[in-house]
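Recall that a protein's primary structure is simply its ordered list of amino acids. Everything else, from secondary elements to tertiary packing, is in principle encoded there. The following example makes that idea concrete.
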Amino acid sequence: MKKVLYSLLFLSFMVGAPMQSQAQCKSFTKKTCLPHLEPYIYNGQLNSAVLSEGDVAELLLTFYGGQDYRINICSHETLGKIQFQVYDTDKNLLFDNTKNDLTNSWDFKSNSTQQLIVRVIVPKEKNRSEMVQSGCVSILVGFKE
């Protein structure tokens, strides 16, 4: 009977933990990250995930021609400086924040409607003797009217 109870508790934790972390990530994004888009207007798409050191994530986003945009990457401080790159669909590099003092945002004008790939890289901490860190990473897009 105890084995069944422990199994049910473990299962409920494994199912509930990702939902709780996603809720915390959503709250973090709304409270901490959205102000970094100003004076741009948030496009309403919430793109966030809990990532760990060494993780790489890519997101395909659509940008409309004739519009000014800001892409902003926001993360928990425990992850350190997040690297991000923007590519077109032919994998041509358009922006790399490692060549721009690891800035958290990129402002640009989209000359035509296009899809771009935003690649986020969470660096690994060198000489870390403690547990691997994880935290929320959000990719936000704003536009000007």
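Residues 2-33 form the longest helix (32 residues). Helices lie at 2-33.
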